[in-house]
Specification:
The protein is α/β, with parallel strands linked by helices and about 210 residues long. The chain is about 50% helix and about 15% strand. The relative contact order is 0.19. Bound molecules: adenosine-5'-diphosphate (ADP) and adenosine monophosphate (AMP).
């Protein structure tokens, strides 16, 4: 089963992708997490991506597509995967499509997690992330058991560099310009499903499970 999570930055794609991954035993592939890991490790890819990410811009398609296609060619992706944060542009979606067609495969579900911009700003300003295991929390909505500490691995939580208010606005406008057209793209392929992302995490997950049945 191959699933794409669509939605604005901060809509809850990562939160839901993690739950789907656990329930269905599929790898959760977040291009944002891969870039952040590369930045932490000081790789060439990380250095290149950081400049774009800190400005709230997208990393160029060529770099992102190459990285993603390499990741989905790994053995753990044989039974499928959940893509979170990819594709983010029409050319990225077309590149993925072309590769899947070559392999005689296709995307089974594109799940659009819908959250209005007003809620997004609050979601991203309260987001706290674990720099080690990538678990995500929210100060108000999904707080960790111990303030500032990851439930999963005990690491101190951080504010993502790109969750500053100025960058959030930029990322939202990039989303509307470059990523939202994908809703139509997958609609035309008859794989699009929409869920109300303003609900509680468990209710959003229930709606997604109903779709994936
Ligand atoms: P995305 O991967 O789409 O950028 P995240 O999954 O990181 O979004 O979620 C953004 C923020 O909103 C995080 O702080 C997360 O804990 C919180 N969050 C996610 N889903 C919900 C929800 N259904 N209700 C309230 N807060 C949520
Ligand atoms: P995310 O963790 O999905 O919110 O992504 C954080 C940042 O990483 C984005 O704002 C982009 O700068 C970059 N990024 C992640 N995925 C992509 C992608 N598919 N295409 C281009 N840039 C991306």
């Amino acid at each position: 089963m191959k699933i794409i999570m669509l939605g604005a930055p901060g809509a809850g794609k990562g939160t839901q992708a993690e739950k789907i991954a656990e329930k269905y035993g599929l790898p959760h592939i977040s291009t944002g997490d891969i870039f952040r890991k590369n930045i932490k490790e000081g790789t060439e890819l990380g250095r290149e991506a950081k400049g774009y990410m800190d400005k709230g811009a997208l990393v160029p398609d060529e770099l992102t597509v190459r990285m993603l296609l390499d990741r989905v060619s790994k053995n753990d992706c044989k039974e499928g995967y959940i893509l979170d944060g990819f594709p983010r542009t029409i050319p990225q979606a077309e590149a993925l499509d072309a590769e899947l067609t070559k392999l005689g495969e296709k995307i089974d579900y594109a799940v659009d997690v819908e959250v209005p911009d007003e809620n997004i700003v609050k979601r991203m300003s309260g987001r706290r992330a674990c720099p080690k295991c990538q678990a995500t929390y929210h100060l108000e909505f999904i707080p960790p058991k111990q303030e500032g500490v990851c439930d999963e691995c005990g690491t101190g939580l951080v504010i993502r560099d790109d969750d500053k208010p100025e960058t959030v606005q930029k990322r939202l406008s990039v989303y509307h310009e470059q990523t939202q057209p994908l809703i139509d793209f997958y609609g035309k392929k008859n794989v699009l499903h929409t869920v109300d992302g303003t609900q509680d995490v468990e209710d959003v997950f229930k709606a997604i499970k109903d779709i994936l049945k």
